[in-house]
Every structure is written in structure tokens, then in C-alpha cells.
Amino acid sequence: MSQHGEQQSTSDRGSQAGTGAVTAPAATKIGTDVIQRTWVEPQAGSTFDAHGWRMALYENRTLASAITAAVTGMLVGYPFDSLKTRMQTYHYPSLLACARKSIAEEGVRGLYRGLLPPLLTASAAKSLSFSVFEETKHWLRRHDPFATQQAPFGLANFQRKTVGSVALSAGVSGSISGAVIAVLCCPLELIKVQMQLARLLNRDPTSSDTATASSKPVGTLVSTPAGTLQGGGAAIATRQLRNAPAAPPWAASNLSVLREIVRRRGPSGMYYGIGLHILRDSSGTAIYFASYETVKETLRRLTGSDTTGPLTHMLAGGTCGVVSWLLIFPVDLIKSTMQSQVLKPKGSKTFASSLQCLRDIHSRLGLAGLYRGISVSLIRAFPIHGLNFVVYEWARAHICRLAGRPE
């Protein structure tokens, strides 16, 4: 993302506001330091004042850019997220089998079940995430105790003049941003998981994992929560798909899911799995932003450029998406598995705790079991997160050009 002139400087730019031209001084780079030249406000009554909305947009450029990126990414990537959730909590032989079976039972529209809450809130969450990230990053730089002296143990400071400093600053800021977002979005993601799994949960409401499948004879058709068809032939499989259960009554809408959670669990049920949610988002967002800015700054230095373009943003964004998922996927898998049990009677839960869930998955499936469904995340990670940052950086730069202001 743009570093407000901290990592890069741009040539002076001018923008046209009506018939009046306003020159926007950028930043001057001297060595590793960046000195921001003073902006001279247009005189009252100038043509530029007629476009006050541009300045309002400029002042909120982080929010506007993040919203644009969030909506674009959500519309493109949500079907992959839905398949990922299904593969994490139910057994499918492969991603292709999961996609085929899901579409056969529910249609393409079924892959967008539960889209409304994240679509409405993703823009708010992402804009808040980016805003908290940016503000924390600048706060750390202003209050850096090692700004003028060497940090202990050879650690980097928060001045963002080296690649290590950029990574540290982004990692700490991202961790704080992720924790804030997790607290706000936990109820919404809990609803999303229930909507995505509604039909599968209705197939066998007393079981949420595939333990029951392991006790079934392999030679018969197994109708398990995992959705795995074994034996029985294509004709039986076809009948099974046609007779797929409808979504349960409580999954009629996002609001009805919320009501059902509160009815069965009380108001605190909306935060079922909050600990895992905070762990996933704080660590994942730290890795996400740190890897993005590190790759972006490294590529900028390698090319000897003061600016970065769409290709750099795509490479850095795609890389950070893949790296963050590889490192935090097991936490996300356990979180999804535990949250899928929120509407089950306490006595019928498969797992009483996240630790029990971890041990069970590892004992039955080994380390590979902790990455069940990761193929979906990795397939979508590079293009979706690359697109996310391309759109974000493009929107931010476009707003700055529109306002005639430096990035």
C-alpha cells in the first residue's frame, strides 16, 4: 500500500480542477530520508474550491480505497471461501468434487450463501483495518524510542528506512489491526459459516466432522456430513444429489441464523470461538501486511525506482496472501470446525475444546489434516489478494491525482 512518501517519492504532479491548474508538490528523497515539501493551500475563491468533494475524498482516501478493494475482492473470491469452509468441516475427495457436488445440490447460487453480511461489512471491516494499520504505523514512528539510538539486540526500529524496519512496523501495526477487526467481525463470520454449511449441517445435525464416516463400511454408499460418496455406483450417487436436504428453517436468512444462535446460546453465543478468531486475525494480519510491505519495498529497491506499479502490487499482494494462509491455515481450520458446532446441542458436540479438535484431527489425519481444504485458499490467494492490492493502490493513487495532492 502507499506509504505516504515514506518509502517512495513521486515526481511533481499537477491536476486540473475546472479551468484552474493546481500543482501538487510531492516528496523529495534525500538518501534514505524523505522530506515532505509544504503544501500551499489554494486561495479562497479559486476554481479548486468548487470541487471541495475532491478534498473530502482525499482526506478519506484510505477508507475509499479499502472499500473499493473489499467489494471487488468479495464478489470475486466468495465462492472460493465457501468451498474452503465446506472442505474444512466436511470430507470431500478433492476440490473439484466439492465444487461439483455443491453446485449439483445447491446451484452456483449456493456458493454465495451468506454473502450479504460479509459484503456489507467487508468494506467497513477492511477500511477500518487499513485505517487502524496506517494510524498505528505512523504512531509507532512518531513514538519510536529508538528513533535516535540503536535498538537492543540489533533489532530494527519503526522509522521505515530499512527493509527490516518496514517489516517490523507493518507486522506490529497489522497485529493490532487484526485484533480489533476480530472482535468486531466474529458474530458476522459465525453467521457466515452457518449459512455456508446450512444444508450440510441439516444432513446430520448431530455430527460436525467426519468421525462417523470412518466407522461406515467402505463398500456401501455413505451419506455422511462429509458429503463423501463411496461405492453404490453413479445411479445411487445421482439419486443422493437429487434428494439433497434443503436448508434448515433457521437458515432462511442471516437474521434468522442470528436469532437461532441467540436462542440456543444466549447473547454470548454470537462470540462463540472468539479466542481462535482473535488468534487467527491478529497473527494472520501481522503476517499479511508485513509480507506485503516487505516484498513491495524489496522489489522497489531492486528496480531502483522511487515508485511501484501494478505488477509490483500484484506480486507483493499475491505473495502475502499465500504466505499468510500457509502459516495460519491450521488455526482457521480449527476455528471453522469449532464454529460449525455452535447450533448443536452440547451433548452432541464432536469437540469440547479447540485443543481436543486439534489433537483429534492430527491423530486421525496427521499434519496434512490441519491443511484440509487449503488448496482452495491457495488457488484463490494469489489472484484475489494480488487484485485486492492492485485495486487499493490504484484507487488511492487515482484519488490523489484527482485532488492534485501527493500520495
UniProtKB/TrEMBL annotation:
<dbReference type="InterPro" id="IPR023395">
    <property type="entry name" value="MCP_dom_sf"/>
</dbReference>
<feature type="repeat" description="Solcar">
    <location>
        <begin position="60"/>
        <end position="139"/>
    </location>
</feature>
<dbReference type="InterPro" id="IPR018108">
    <property type="entry name" value="MCP_transmembrane"/>
</dbReference>
<keyword id="KW-0677">Repeat</keyword>
<keyword id="KW-1133">Transmembrane helix</keyword>
<keyword id="KW-0472">Membrane</keyword>
<dbReference type="GO" id="GO:0022857">
    <property type="term" value="F:transmembrane transporter activity"/>
</dbReference>
<protein>
    <recommendedName>
        <fullName>Mitochondrial carrier</fullName>
    </recommendedName>
</protein>
<keyword id="KW-0812">Transmembrane</keyword>
<dbReference type="InterPro" id="IPR050567">
    <property type="entry name" value="Mitochondrial_Carrier"/>
</dbReference>
<dbReference type="Pfam" id="PF00153">
    <property type="entry name" value="Mito_carr"/>
</dbReference>
<keyword id="KW-0813">Transport</keyword>
<feature type="repeat" description="Solcar">
    <location>
        <begin position="308"/>
        <end position="398"/>
    </location>
</feature>
<comment type="similarity">
    <text>Belongs to the mitochondrial carrier (TC 2.A.29) family.</text>
</comment>
<feature type="compositionally biased region" description="Polar residues">
    <location>
        <begin position="1"/>
        <end position="16"/>
    </location>
</feature>
<dbReference type="GO" id="GO:0031966">
    <property type="term" value="C:mitochondrial membrane"/>
</dbReference>
<feature type="region of interest" description="Disordered">
    <location>
        <begin position="1"/>
        <end position="23"/>
    </location>
</feature>
<keyword id="KW-0496">Mitochondrion</keyword>
<feature type="repeat" description="Solcar">
    <location>
        <begin position="165"/>
        <end position="298"/>
    </location>
</feature>
